[in-house]
């Protein structure tokens, strides 16, 4: 049993924390909106009133937060978690905040506190099933200490030194943006050429876009997009990828513009695949 503080119980964080509780770990949870953390009490979680309270006395603190600003506030703001962490404990940031934010965060932690960056790929159902892929960067000794906990959540892979997990996640999400935009544009071309939409989706599902189309086929057919990975978060990740590259990348820029457009149209809280529908509707 590991004593864990889990900060951020949103769409992904809540099922992840629930899995840790189900595996027998002692978990204190905190969320900015307390009502989103309280259901975990039924699974045995301690619902803390502040990030510091969730982190106090914990061997491992996990952050699963929206962006860099949220991470800084939760760790270093009033009643922040970092000040409550003890020497020998490990911070595992599973947010997608970019490599620079990870390195800056590590430099501000108390002496004796280690850090891993471990963003994930996978949807909300995969989080609930413990089938996430966890891209981890940081010291090997810290990684080996927490690997059994991460394995409750999915398949951890150490990909290098601190910041490497964050870097891999931006590489992957830059490609994800291009694929989903390409799917939407393919449907527009098919419509312009008089093709049946179902026939086009069938063809795409058996093409190089197949994995994405197959994964999202149900919502694409229904044209309803309950969030598993929000448009707003995907747009944020594309902006991070664009900034990280340090030079213009036309594919990433085009994908970012499409996601920003969907967010501006009021679709920020829908699943990222809603961008396909936004493109189709023009």
Q: What features would you describe in this structure?
A:
48% of the residues are buried. The mean pLDDT is 96. The protein has two domains: 3-162, Rossmann fold (3-Layer(aba) Sandwich), CATH 3.40.50; 167-281, N-(1-d-carboxylethyl)-l-norvaline Dehydrogenase, domain 2 (Orthogonal Bundle), CATH 1.10.1040.10. The chain has twelve helices and nine strands. The strands form two sheets. It has a six-stranded parallel beta sheet with strand order 3-2-1-4-5-6. A three-stranded mixed beta sheet has the order 7-8-9. It is elongated, with a radius of gyration of 20 Å. Helix 7 (164-192) runs antiparallel to helix 8 (197-205) and helix 11 crosses helix 12 (274-281). It has 282 residues and is α/β, with parallel strands linked by helices. The N and C termini lie far apart (52 Å).
Topology (SSEs and partners):
Layout: E1 3-7, H1 13-22, E2 26-30, E3 46-47, H2 51-55, E4 60-63, H3 68-76, E5 90-93, H4 99-108, E6 114-117, E7 120-121, H5 124-129, E8 132-137, H6 140-153, E9 154-160, H7 164-192, H8 197-205, H9 210-222, H10 231-245, H11 250-267, H12 274-281
Parallel strand pairs: 1-2, 1-4, 2-3, 4-5, 5-6, 8-9
Antiparallel strand pairs: 7-8
Helix pairs in contact: 7-8, 7-10, 7-11, 7-12, 8-9, 10-11, 11-12
Brief characterization of the structure:
By secondary structure, the chain is of the alpha/beta class. The protein is built from twelve helices and nine strands.
Q: Looking at the structure, what is the overall shape? A: elongated
Number of helices: 12
Q: Report the mean per-residue pLDDT as an integer.
A: 96
Roughly how many Å is the radius of gyration?
20 Å
Largest sheet, strands/sense/barrel: 6 strands, parallel
User: What is the CATH first-level class name of the largest domain?
Assistant: Alpha Beta
Q: Largest sheet, order of strands side by side? A: 3-2-1-4-5-6
DSSP helix fraction? 40-55%
Number of strands: 9
CATH superfamily of the largest domain: NAD(P)-binding Rossmann-like Domain
Order of helices and strands: EHEEHEHEHEEHEHEHHHHHH
